[in-house]
Amino acid sequence: MPIPASSAADSLKVRVFRSDGAQSGRFVDYEVPRQPSQTILDVVTYIQREIDPTLAYRFACRVGMCGSCAMTVNGKARWTCRTHVQTVAGEGQVEIAPLANLPVIRDLVTDMREFFDKWARARGQFVPTATRRDEFAKVSPESPQRRAIDATIECIGCAVCYASCDVVTWNPHYLGPAALNRAWTLVNDVRDGDRTGRLGAVSGDAGCHACHTQQTCTLRCPKHLTPTDSIAGLKRASLLAALRGEIA
Amino acid sequence: MSAARREAYLWLASRASAAVLALCVVVHLATMIVAVRSGLSAADILGRTRGSTTWAVFYAVFVIAVAVHAPLGLRSVLSELVRRQGALLDWTMALLALVLLAGGLRAVFAVTIA
Fold this sequence. Notes:
A: five-stranded mixed β-sheet; 7 strands; 14% strand; B: 114 residues; mainly alpha
C-alpha cells in the first residue's frame, strides 16, 4: 500500500548514496514525507517505491532479527529497520550510505562475502563430538562456560560491528568483532571438538590480539552485545593455550 | 614459532610490560613531586641516585619495560599504517628495542653508578 504523502513542512530531507558498483559514488537528495514511528528502512522503501525504483537496498525481516538491512545512517552503522527517524534526524535531515569496510555492489547494498568468509576463517563452524546415536548433551544454563555466552549467541550477523571497527579499516585482514564473537561462542561450547584449532585460527597476525579495545563494536551493536568482551576472552584463552603448548 | 603462538606471547609481553610501567610511572612521578620540594638541581638529583642500588634497579626495570612495551605498540601502529606485517617490521622493532635498552641503561648507569 503506498504511503500517503504529507505536507512539505512534514517532510524529511534525505541524502542517499548512489553507486553503480564502482568504488566512487555520489549522494542524491530526496524529500520524503514524515510518518509517525517511521524507521530509516521505511524511508528507503518509500524512495524506492514512490520516487526512484532503481534504488538498490537489502532487507528481509523488518523486525531486527535477520541482520540484512544495516546501513550507515548519519555516519554511523545502524540496523535501519529498528532505527526511528526521530532518533537520528536532528534537523530534519538524514544521510544514508552503505556499510563501511565492505565493497559496494550497488547503491546501499554491500558485498558481505568477506565478512562471512572471516567467520569461516575464525573456524566459526560447530565441530560435533557426538553422533546422532548419542544422548543429547546436557549443558547446565548455570555453568560458567554457558553463562559466558548467554549474550554472544544472540548475534544476528548484521555487520554493524564490522563496519564500525577501525582495526578492520586499517587492517583489512583482521577477522573483525563478529567472527571473533562467534569463535568465542564456540570456544565455550562444551560440545565442540575443535577448541584448540579455533584458538590457533583466531590468534594469528589478523586475529584477536590485533584488537585495540576501542570498543566501537560494543558501542554500536544493535543487540547490545559486547564483542570486546569476547575478544578479551579469546586473548586470554589463546595465551593460556600457547603457554600450555596447545597452539603449535 | 607459528604466528598464532608468537602473537599470543607478544600480547603477554605487551600487557606485562604495561603493568610494570604503570607502577614505575607512579613511583617516578611521586618521586618528582616530592623531590622538587627541596629544590630541583642536578646536584640534588645525583645526590639521591648516586650509589643507590635501589634506584639503579628501579630505573633499570623501568627501562627494560619501556624497551619491551614501546616497540610492541609501535609495531601495532606501523603494521596498520603500512598495511604490512612481516620479518622486516619485526626486526626493525627489535632494533628499536635494543636502542631504547642501550640508551636507557646507559643513562641509568650514569646517574646511579658512574
